[in-house]
Amino acid sequence: MNLLSYIFRAVQIAPYQGVGVLTPPTVAPVLTVEADLGSYDAVLTWTPSNKTGSPGFEYQVYFLLVPDSEFTLAGSTTSLTFTFTASEVGVYAFKVVPVNSAGEGPSSNEVVITLPGESEAPVLTGPSEVSSEDPTALLEWNAIPGATLYSVQRSPDDATWTQIFTPTGTSQSVTLSFSPSYYRVIPFAGTFEGLPSNSISITIVSPPVADSYLRPDGTSTYLRPDGTSIYLRP
User: Fold this and answer.
1) pTM of the predicted protein model
2) Same domain, yes or no, for 110 and 176?
3) Based on the structure, what is the number of domains in the chain?
4) Which residues contact 12 (CB under 8 A, 6 or more apart)?
5) Is 4 helix (H, G, I), strand (E, B) or coil?
6) Fewer C-beta neighbours within 10 Å, C or N terminus of the chain?
7) Mean pLDDT, each 10-residue run in order, the chain (234 residues)
């Protein structure tokens, strides 16, 4: 190596660990993994390590299919994201290791996820009561990534469920036919079933009856059932 080449090499690696000495990365990435409902694709993203401009720097992505005990290299990249496509249904663990020409740095945290993606359960909201004069209620829930429709289900006992609607949006108006009525929502991606939401209970209540009152002369009076006229008590 001539003098100019030596100087160039020294300048190239000096910022990473002293002139003439290259060492592995020292910062562990922080890994997150997500998969849409019903998808076999796991999208990995992580925070950067250090020494990203050092010779041979890259992130190596590893996976493990439970119950295996050893990780397998899935691929490598210099970016901060990687998409892993599973070949079979199962529970997968992932980790990311930064490396350079000097060796491996500290591994990221390990993240476990089920593929195809179960995603998260919707959070269902709605009123706790409706009037017997108009026993309708609006159910609402959050969107689940990858869901193509939602199964709105009703139950008389919070145990036996019947599908009543399959909207593609995140709300549905329902009319109660019995009280209490329980409701829940299950997201679907095609035929793949996601996690059920919480269940909520809605009760039908009668409107309040008008109270009786006393006339100024002390004689009590009452409203008729139609609420429009009064009559004197004998």
Assistant:
1) 0.65
2) no
3) 2
4) 55
5) helix
6) C
7) 50 51 96 94 97 96 94 97 95 97 96 90 96 96 95 96 97 95 96 94 87 56 55 48
